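Hey team,

Filing this mostly as a record. A colleague (T.K.) asked me to run one chain through the structure pipeline before their review meeting, and I want the input and output archived in the tracker in case anyone asks later how it was produced. No errors, nothing strange. Just documentation.

Input sequence:
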Amino acid sequence: MILRWGLLLLGCFIFLFPAQGETANIRIGIDNNPPLTRVNQQGEAEGLFPDLFMQVAKAENWSIEYVPCQWQQCLESLATGDIDILPAIAYTKERANLFHFADEVITSSWGQIYQQRNNNVSSVLELAGKKVAVLKQDIYLIGEQGLFQISENFNIEIDYVKVDSYQDAFTLLNNGAVDAAMVGRFYGLKNAQKFDLLPAPIMIKPIQVRPAFAATIPQQYKIDFDQLLHKWKQSTNSVYYQLLDKWLGVKNPALLPRWFTTSLSSLVGMFALLLFITFWTRKQVKIKTRELSRQQQHYQIFFEESQSIMLLVDPETAEIVDANPAACKFYQYRREQLQNMKMWQINQIGEAEVKNRLAAAIKLDQQQFERVHTRADGTKVPVEVYRSPIHTRDRTLLYSIIHDISKRKRAEQELEERNNFLQSVIDGVSDPMMVISLDYQILQLNKSARQQQSIPVEHGQLACYQLSHGLQIPCNGNDYPCPLLEIKETKLPVTVIRHHETDQGKRILELCASPLFDANGELYAIIEVVRDITERLQIEELLNENEKRLHHLAHHDSLTDLPNRLLFDDRLKQALSKARRSGRQVALFFLDLDHLKIINDNLGHDYGDLLLIDIAKRLRKCVREGDTVARMGGDEFLVLLEEVESVEMIAAMAERICNSLSHELVKGEFRQEISASIGISIYPEDAKNEQEMMKNADLAMYRVKSSGKANYQFYSAPQGRFLFD
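Output structure:
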């Protein structure tokens, strides 16, 4: 009976949970992006992500099928569901609308511009007009603050050569087919030396690299992946950190500021723990001193079985009185060997210094310091020592707990090298650059900024407003607009213009500020780049003035400064267009100066030029403000009358011009009457376009010349008759 009930329950359990043992078949897209992903010559997938998903498959009972594809093809296949997972993909809001991104970040990266060794590209401005190889649909190209947006912000044009892989980009650059190439930093670090290429001091915004799951597969796969990776991240000995070290050579995938904070917190925690152990040890030593006979067993457990390195030292002789097994293992000596040694034999500071320090240590409750100790094989190891005096019945000894800090020192050295690398990158930027926290404190300065402000490399904490303006409060107002406040509100880059009074006079500065986000996408600082644009604006202003001057020269007569034929044709065309809309008339005067040749023959061409200048002035005074007077060349002038209301008005203007120009020129014994012959055509009665207007006015002028000069004549009257005055 019991057996039947048990079988029945087992059958129900199998019926209710049939899928727990099934193997899920997962298709993962693999593009050529080493060291993250690639397909080797044997057709096998390898890299950080294939290894990581192989471990996930073992843990989650997945069956993985790797699908090789080019990057653009990978994106399209993920969108259509032809693949289930694209592992090495940067997170963006746009892509998050198409795919299900894992919540856990695998690592962070940024775009890096590379160049050949003989090139010297030092800023993004120097990419103007150059050929740059870029990966199609690369996030460093099309993403927010990608190279597209950066080039637009700086108003520069880059000749983009789009390729299917980072390898193709480096190949083109190595062959000289392009001037530069943009790749992800991991690919660049692993392959730049192979292609004999160097990084330029141009980096594109860091991004988070997370796997993306197709919308067509259940979200449970993403949930299982996030839970497993979150679990691995909790242990520094997990396969996750092992794979990061194997493929990327890093222990922690986070961005530098978060890594630094985590490391610092760990060191502080370690210090607190060791300090607690020191105080606790000191207390125990005192108790053991007072009750040694009753607590010998406790001493043996604590001293003999402790994994911490422990030494008892006589401060008067510097002899090692005793060492626990952990100390023997660390220093590679037998216990009796250590008990016959002096401290200066393992301490690098020397005999005299050891004696002085030991003598002083008796008067102190406890000490904590770092030293370099030597092992039996000659290896020098950095150690941290926590030391306190203990009092026995007949003498005082120094009790030391020693910790091997070589791993910590290596981590600090790696951190320092990384800081130095980042500092060298920003020092390569010629413009002053600062990284400013949200509370206005300067986190980082490049060399140009330090030199401009005369700041030493080692400087105390400074606020940006103290450094740039000598103020005690943050900038505000129109004189000193604060980009940090605007970026806090918009999370977008901003450019402001500032005016500064300096020893060189008034300078105009362009300040470009960009947001800096942490691994979680939270704003924690901004990057400011300052550029003096005073000379550039002056040059632009000079060019504008020159352009205006050249434009004026191209459209005006050099002798009389009247509009020339080119400008007059344009105004005539506009006047006729306006007249067609308004139904008004337009009149054109073709004017030829009488007797100019006699003036030139008797008084010379210079005097003739003076006469032409005088005629131009007289004509300007005769016409209305909206009318146009132009010189055709030689002794021919043109007058354009717009908004004409009647033939009588035109005749009155012709009378005025004839009277103004008619006068006697007297130069010594030379006398000559000056006058003009004027032909007039009217739109629309006489002509329908500009060419007919000019032709008919010219014909009317020649009729005046033939009939005695010094007069004006219409091409035709409204009734079709020629008019003479």
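Quick notes for T.K.: Residues 256-290 form the longest helix (35 residues). The two ends are 139 Å apart (CA to CA).
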